[in-house]
Amino acid sequence: MLSKKLFLNIAMVLAFAFAASAQDDIILIKKYAENAFKKGDYEYALQNYLELLKYDKENIDLRYRIGVCYTETNIDKERAVEHLEYVASFNNYPIRTKFFLGKAYMYNYRFTEAIEAFYEYKMVGVDETDLFESDRMIKMCEHTKQLINNPINVTFTLLDSTINSKFDDMIPIATPDNNLLYFSSNRNYIKEYEAYIYSGQYSENKKGLWQPAVQIPISSYDDENVVGITPDGNKMLVYANGDYATHDIKQYTRKGVKFTKSQVSDLPADMNTDDIEMGACFTADGNTIYFASNRPGGRGGLDLYVSHKGIDGKWGPSENMGTDINTEYDENFPTLSPDGKAFYFASKGHDGIGGYDIFSTSFDESSGKWYKPRNVGFPLNTPLDNTSISFVGDGSVAYVAAKRKEGVGNLDIYRVDFGDESIQPSYYTGIVFVGDDEQSAMPHNDKMQKAYVMVYDIYGNIIAQLDVDEGVFFSALYPGDYTIEVKFEGQDSGYKEKFHMNLGENIEKEIYLKPVK
To answer: How far is CA 432 from CA 247, 380, 483, in A?
Structure first.
């Protein structure tokens, strides 16, 4: 039987061993996090940094890196703000903190605060790329404040679990008759890689119901995304990247449940290069193909190219679509309306809200040029990436992938119904007073602390973000149920209420905010 002294000695030895083991684990986790952060693998870096946070919650360098990771991924961009604000509260914060805080505010619809953060970074920043991006994002925030407060009349409907999963479900492409839906998802687990990869999925619409999605049986060990189809859904353009294909576009033909790879000659000979080719689509007759590439000679980043098939059935040389479409930033994921008259694509360079936005244009036969691309508007476009849209029928219904509050995964697929364009929005008018009660309240003015307005739908998605201007704000809204919140800058709470907006009804409300002590 062990003596008490011997028992205590053994316990101390074990305690030291466990402590040493825990310290070794922390060192290893930190190594994993730092390596991933340097490589730009922010998701994996974040997983490890969050483990480290359990042991060192007040480390501003750690909190900074966590804030950056949240900003640069779609995991939960809202969480970036709390970490970066904490870091910015210290005098010795990392120099790029305000730059990322500006991005975090922007992603969370706090555009006025984002502009202020970018200006603050410009006063101390030294990185030319960041300074240029700060100027660009300031302009983007100003433009976004106009778009978000003039929303288009659309309704989002989340597709159920026959389509969506807890993974990324994206790039929905439907046949014009709405009978077949292709999309891409990273739900495909490869045991040899110990990782999930992207593969094409499809679903058939039977009696108005989408059937459980089926993985397209073409997948190798590459990430493969369906990016374009013919109107009958029997030919697909697939972007592939991995060990067996490097940023190339392949074509597959569907016959029933079988999919076969087409001959290389079925695509333009100069389409795939050693560079990146990604989004692509056919015209209805199959005689024209549009695709994205970052090959040399473009305007910058990914540009859109076009190739036409001649009367001899052979593809002509691929041509850059020119400065009407392409910018110095990325253009990608081209697609056409069912009637072929409207051309849609994603761009990071035109007048956008943030990241990729969806734009539309059409070709002017008389001038031989494309009309100036038009942003399709909020809430189809948001401060996050919005990359593709697929219309069916007469164009009043489309499918998009989006990250929204009611979703089940990261990106989910939604049906979008466009409302009657002749219906005008109604207005919620708020008149803001500051005081403990109606008798002592004074009208809010611009010399007081800034006040902001947020309007949410029933799921918590932001519908409008407004500044209070000389004590008044206006919000244009279509019929529906909403929540409005009015509060001072930096305050966690203020005035909040739920309300219903009827067609043709305008609401005028006096709102009282308690003064900041």
So the answer is: 54, 30, 17
